[in-house]
Amino acid sequence: MSPPVVRFGAACLAAALLLSACAVGPDYHRPALPSASGYGSEATSPAESGFSGAPQLVLGSDIPAQWWTVFHNADLDALVAQALKNSPTVEAAQAALRSARELVKAQQGAYFPTMAASVQPSRQQFAQTLSSPLNNGSQLYNLTTTQVSVSYTPDLFGANRRAVENLTAQADQQRFELEAARLTLASNVVQAAIQDAQLRAEIEATQAIVNGQQQTLESFRRQYALGQASKADVAAQEALLAQTQAALPPLQRQFRVNRDLLEALVGRTPGEPVTVSFAFKDLTLPESLPLSLPAQLVDHRPDVRLAEAQLHAASAQIGVAVAARLPNLEIDANAGSAALGLVPKFDSASNFWSVAATLAQPIFQGGTLLHRQKAAEAAYDQAAAQYRAAVVDAFQNTADTLHALWTDADALSQARAAADATRRSLDIARKQYALGDLSRLAVISAEQAESQAELTLLQAEANRYDDAVALFQALGGGWWNRGGQDRVADVVNP
After folding, report:
1. Among 245, 225, 212, which Cα is nearest to 444's?
2. CA distance 478 to 234
3. 137: exposed, middle or buried (Cβ count in 10 Å: 0-12, 13-18, 19+)
4. What is the arithmetic mean of pLDDT over 344-369?
5. Residue whose C-alpha is closest to residue 301's, from 225, 393, 235
6. Does residue 323 contact residue 164 with C-beta atoms inside 8 Å?
7. Residues 287, 53: contact at Cβ < 8 Å?
8. Whole-number pLDDT of residue 384
9. Residue range 106-112: average pLDDT?
């Protein structure tokens, strides 16, 4: 372009940049933190409620990124790592995040002018009934047009800025979708491992009870043959054995289903079984657990952060809708050469250029733009309500988890006491039966109570482990401690 064109274009660009410093609102501000200072006295003060064996809570303590390592089981750590690596759900969330970030960069390209170059060689023949455009009057000629086109739409009222803001917020949504997927997956793997340990122990305990009852039944049958036991005693023992045996198939089914779940969580099919197994003796129950402050909870929960990102995106969309109702400026410049022949020429006779600016203002579109703005404002109100609901749910979920911690700790203590008591009771009943002071039916009743107490104890132990997992999940899972400004960089670009 010639110097005058360059100066004119530069002046237009400078004016556009000055105008683009203004962006239509609203400007987004993070919602105020909740006024609550805790999760309720009953949720955080178990000592006053008389619960025993409760874990110690460290208020304000941080959560490790790999929180599952608190159970001190190398097989569990490896399984969670494998699940995070192979999960198609996590992989899909990673791809969605990459896509969202690329869309942000694509929209940022609208801040800059667009440029295109073209070469158009042609051979033309005019009808003899028309005047030739050439000086020599020829009707047949070659024409080559070469040009460079530059177009720029200044962001006068921040429409593009708000569009970038909207897409950035959507990328944040995908980011926290990924964090939520990782947290849910890790929690599910740990809970499946705990369930594996529980069901193995229940199956072993039930099988041991069955074996003992079978031996007792054989003894009763021999005693009955010798006339030392009644037929009622044999029938009662047979009924007890059948009742215990009936409990085994459901446990075995649950065990196999849980193993299938564990294989699916690590990205395997049933034909690729997971070989590791778990037992409570190989898992450490944390004696102390972290408890985030309310302000930290809002900042750390992926679901709350996702709802906040949706609110941010809705706020930016209002600005996009408002800007669509305001004037729009477009600047176009072209420069090139139109030469006779198939070879381009660049000289004063063949060169051309043009600079044009178009200012457009929507006047009437049947209310379309106005109602789109109102729809965006209503969507913002919806997102604000959903954010408040997410915060309330987060506090409720955390409080419920704390209640479960205290009650399940007390239940475990009571289950242990009950198991000890039923063992002593059964031992006494058997001794009394041997001395003839107690009927066999009373012994059978004591055996039933002892076996039920053992299974209840196993369930109580599993609940304590599940409660620890639920607390880590309720507090956000420690994703913010993976390091770096981009908390998911190690996941997106492993």
Report:
1. 212
2. 59
3. exposed
4. 88
5. 393
6. no
7. no
8. 96
9. 95
Give me 52's structure tokens. Answer: 């025993």
User: Is residue 445 a part of any domain in this protein?
Assistant: yes
Asked whether residue 151 is domain-assigned, the answer is: no
Give a yes or no: residue 209 inside a domain. Answer: yes
146 occurs within a structural domain = no
* 3-state SS class at 56: strand
Phi, psi of 256 (to 5 degrees): -65, -40
pLDDT in tens, 286-307: 888 888 888 889 999 999 999 9
Which residues form the domain of 461? 23-112+156-326+368-492
The CATH code of the domain that includes 259 is 1.20.1600.10
Residue identified by tokens 């000055």 is 18
Q: What are the DSSP calls for 329-397, one per residue?
A: EEEEEEEEEEEESSS---STTTEEEEEEEEEE----STTHHHHHHHHHHHHHHHHHHHHHHHHHHHHHH
Which H helix or E strand runs over 257? helix 248-265
User: Measuring CA to CA, how many Å separate 85 from each of 96, 121, 143, 473?
Assistant: 16, 55, 60, 19
Q: Tokens standing for 92?
A: 């899909």
